[in-house]
Write a structure and sequence with these properties.
Blueprint: E1 5-10, H1 17-32, E2 36-40, H2 46-56, H3 65-89, E3 93-97, H4 100-110, H5 115-126, E4 133-138, H6 141-150, H7 164-180, E5 185-189, H8 194-208
Parallel strand pairs: 1-3, 1-4, 2-3, 4-5
Organism: Streptococcus pseudoporcinus LQ 940-04
Enzyme class: transferase
Function: Phosphorylation of dTMP to form dTDP in both de novo and salvage pathways of dTTP synthesis.
Length: about 210
C-alpha cells in the first residue's frame, strides 16, 4: 500500500491544467510540509518522453487509433514504475498532468475505441493503481482551442489539429467519467481566471486528501 497521495489533473486541451499545477505547488508544500512531485503523461521519464514525441508529432497523421492508445499505455506503464510508484512509496504527493481518464476520454469517447478494452489496458498497465483524487477542469472546446491559438509559447501538436467534433466528444467523455466516479472526480470550472481556478483546486484538495 502506497504511503503518499496521487492526484491527477484532467481536462480538454486548453483547460489550463499545467498553469494550475504550477500555482498549486507552493500552496500544497506549505499545507503538507511534504515533497511534491509534479509530472505528466505521456512523459515524465526518458522512455515515456520519447514515446510522447512519436504520439504528438504532427507528421504522424497516419497513426491508427489503436496504435495511439497502445503507445499511451506503454508510456503510462514506464512512467508509473520508474517515477510515480517510487515517489508514493516515499510518502510524497504526486501531481500528474493527465492519467488513466485521458485514455477513456480521448481514445474512447474521442476515437470511438472500446471503453472496456481501454479499462482493461489501464488496469494491466497500472496494476489497478487509481488516483486518490482527480480534478477535472471543464470548459468548451471552442474556448480551449481559442486559448491554444492565442498562446504563442505553446507548441501545436497532432491532437490540437483534430476537428472540433472530436474535441467535443472528448469533453463529453470526461463529463461521463465525472458522473461515473463522483467520489474520485471533482469538476472545476476552467472558464474562470487562473487565480480563481487555483484557489478552487486548492480548496478541493484540502477537503479531499
Amino acid at each position: 500500500m502506497s504511503k503518499g497521495r496521487l492526484i491527477t489533473f484532467e481536462g480538454p486541451d486548453g483547460a489550463g491544467k499545467t498553469s494550475v499545477i504550477e500555482g498549486l505547488v507552493p500552496l500544497l508544500e506549505n499545507l503538507n510540509q511534504t515533497e511534491i512531485v509534479v509530472t505528466r503523461e505521456p512523459g515524465g521519464v526518458s522512455i515515456a518522453e520519447s514515446i510522447r514525441e512519436v504520439i504528438l508529432d504532427v507528421r504522424n497523421t497516419a497513426m491508427d487509433p489503436k496504435t495511439e492508445l497502445l503507445l499511451y499505455i506503454a508510456a503510462r506503464r514506464q512512467h508509473l514504475v520508474e517515477k510515480v510508484l517510487p515517489a508514493l512509496e516515499q510518502g510524497q504527493m504526486v501531481l500528474i498532468d493527465r492519467f488513466i481518464d485521458s485514455s477513456v476520454a480521448y481514445q474512447g469517447a474521442g476515437r470511438g475505441l472500446s471503453k472496456k478494452a481501454i479499462q482493461w489496458l489501464n488496469d494491466f498497465a497500472t496494476d489497478g493503481v487509481t488516483p486518490d483524487l482527480t480534478l477535472y477542469f471543464d470548459l468548451s472546446p471552442e474556448i480551449g482551442l481559442a486559448r491554444i491559438a492565442k498562446n504563442k509559447k505553446r507548441e501545436i501538436n497532432r491532437l490540437d489539429m483534430e476537428k472540433i467534433e472530436m474535441h467535443q466528444q472528448v469533453r463529453n467523455g470526461y463529463l461521463e467519467l465525472a458522473k461515473e466516479f463522483p467520489d474520485r472526480i471533482v469538476t472545476v470550472d476552467a472558464t474562470k481566471s487562473l487565480d480563481e481556478v487555483v484557489a478552487q483546486a486548492f480548496e478541493i484538495i484540502k477537503e479531499n486528501v
